[in-house]
Design goal:
Layout lengths: L8 H10 L9 E3 L3 H11 L2 E3 L4 H10 L1 H4 L5 H20 L8 H29 L4 H5 L3 H11 L10 H8 L2 H12 L8 H35 L1 H7 L1 H11 L2 H6 L2 H5 L4 H10 L13 H5 L5 H21 L6 H19 L6 H47 L4 E2 L2 E2 L5 H18 L11 H12 L1 H9 L7 H36 L1
Parallel strand pairs: 1-2
Antiparallel strand pairs: 3-4
Helix pairs in contact: 6-8, 6-11, 6-13, 8-9, 8-11, 9-10, 11-12, 11-13, 12-13, 12-18, 12-19, 18-19, 19-20, 21-23
């Protein structure tokens, strides 16, 4: 069954196929849950029984379910029950991550705890450092500033005119910095050992860091309230709105409360005491911390608190049940409270609620449309990016050249070019160191040819292909040249031998 009370289609079909709806005797259906029983009674017009023996029968069926169904073991039944429990819990807990009010409850509780701790620790620093420099307590009243000054000054005897600028940076007041310097010269405090001073400085550093973290936490709470309950935050403030949500337990619970409950939320003790003693009931609870009640006169505080509680209820319901969170309604409601305050003071008649809400609805629809358009645009960009990454991954898998790591484009790793470069280097080395049998000594003409071969990439690639015992065209040309030179030498040598013989014969004669 759905949470709204509508019977599920599968349950309806199961009951229609298995229940004898037509007959003299109408069947009695036992249902363990009263809400499901009421919904089924409306749907099928059956007599439903939800109490008495039904609980015992359902418990027995649940215990012996594996023996009643064929092919179902006890282990499988326990696994199915566990899975059903998990899915039910998941459906109950299912929520939007960005609109989770549990984080607001925890952060406001931590903020209150930090306020208490910072105050306690600051008083400890004041008491501890006050033994050494008691006049500083009267000059500086802020706790965080006092801790920073205790860390900066250290030993008061070492404070001089050179430290005046740094004191002004902390105190943000030249006169106050000069007063601290004058007080340090004529202080009545006791001397302090270096080890005690080190401990005081370390403790003051911790307190300063806690104060800085409190500011960060307050900023986080402000941003979270803008996401979860923007109208309530715009109306009454982030801190007071977060306190209301925390006290109610959740934003949904706060939206379910009537305005009279929201008005005295946080003043339960005073309410029950007044009911017990038959005294006056409290006029306000947590909403007293808002600025509106403080600005109203004493006679109008009860009236403005009642009006403000009414507007807070409207804002919390809009925040809880609206799809797109906007602060339009909260701004309009705040304007109405301001107008009511001026009406109590001056008598100016405020605008009607109907007119204000019409304007707010129109403006909110425009803002919601703009937000939806931006979200759709962002979603399209995200899909395009994912598509590009998938294409790059596919190209990297097919070619083996482009590597993509963790969904991000990395530098392409080209392996074929490296192989070509290594082959070219090997071929150039073989040409520079040729075999002595095939090639004669280098001549200037041959050196030029080698330089041309090294510069020309096409010739080196062809030479890299012909490396399995096959002769390159350059080597063939060199061999031909060497053969022609040998032939010329052979042709030149015979006439020299004949001339020698003729000379010998002439000498003999």
């Amino acid at each position: 069954m759905y949470p709204s009370g509508v019977v599920h289609a599968d349950l309806k079909l199961f009951l229609e196929t298995n229940l004898p709806l037509s007959g003299k005797k109408k069947p009695v259906l036992g249902v363990s849950d009263a809400k499901i029983g009421a919904a089924l009674q409306e749907e099928f017009n059956l007599s439903i029984q939800t109490s008495g023996v039904v609980a015992e029968i359902s418990r027995g069926v649940r215990l012996h379910f594996h023996s009643l169904v064929k092919g179902l073991t006890a282990q499988a039944a326990s696994k199915a029950q566990l899975g059903l429990g998990h899915s039910y819990s998941r459906a109950k807990v299912k929520f939007n991550v960005n609109r989770n009010d549990n984080m607001i409850i925890q952060s406001i509780a931590l903020l209150d705890q930090l306020d208490k701790d910072i105050n306690t620790f600051s008083m400890r620093v004041r008491e501890w450092y006050g033994y050494h420099f008691p006049e500083l307590i009267k000059i500086v009243s802020d706790n965080s500033m006092y801790c920073r000054l205790a860390r900066l000054i250290g030993n008061r005897k070492e404070l001089s005119e050179e430290n005046l600028e740094s004191l002004e940076e902390v105190v943000m007041d030249g006169a106050k910095a000069q007063a601290i310097l004058d007080a340090s010269r004529s202080s009545m405090g006791m001397d302090i050992s270096p080890i005690d001073l080190i401990n005081i400085e370390r403790f003051s550093v911790r307190v300063v860091s806690l104060a800085a973290y409190r500011l960060e936490l307050q900023e986080y709470l402000r941003s979270k309230m803008g996401q979860v309950a923007p109208n309530l935050a715009a109306l009454i403030g982030e801190v007071v709105g977060a306190r209301l949500i925390s006290h109610a337990g959740s934003l949904t619970n706060l939206a379910k409360y009537p305005a009279s409950t929201v008005q005295i939320l946080g003043a339960e003790k005073a309410l029950f005491r007044a009911l017990k003693t038959r005294g006056n009931t409290p006029k306000y609870g947590l909403i007293f911390h808002s600025t509106f009640i403080g600005r109203a006169e004493a006679k109008n505080k009860g009236r403005i608190s009642r009006y403000l509680a009414n507007k807070c209820t409207i804002a919390s319901r809009i925040d809880c049940f609206s799809e797109v969170p906007t602060s339009v309604f909260g701004d309009r409601l705040r304007e109405q409270v301001e107008e009511r305050l001026s009406f109590y003071e001056t008598g100016d008649v405020p605008r009607k609620n109907v007119d204000v809400m019409k304007e707010a609805v129109k403006e909110a629809s425009d803002v919601a449309a703009e937000i939806k358009r931006k979200l759709e645009k962002k979603e399209k960009k995200r899909k395009k990016r994912e598509k590009k990454l998938q294409e790059l991954e596919e190209n990297g898998d097919t070619n083996g050249e482009v590597g993509v790591e963790n969904g991000d484009e990395s530098t392409p790793v080209v392996k074929k070019k490296k192989k070509k470069q290594t082959a070219e280097e090997i071929n150039v080395q073989t040409e520079e160191n040729p075999a002595p049998e095939t090639e004669p000594k280098d001549t200037p003409g041959k050196k030029k040819k080698k330089r041309k071969a090294e510069a020309d990439d096409v010739q080196t690639e062809e030479a890299a292909v012909m490396d399995n015992g096959e002769e390159t065209p350059a080597k063939k040309k060199k061999k031909r040249k060497s053969e022609t030179t040998d032939v010329e030498l052979m042709e030149e040598t015979p006439p020299t031998m004949s001339e020698k013989k003729k000379k010998k014969k002439a000498a003999a004669e």
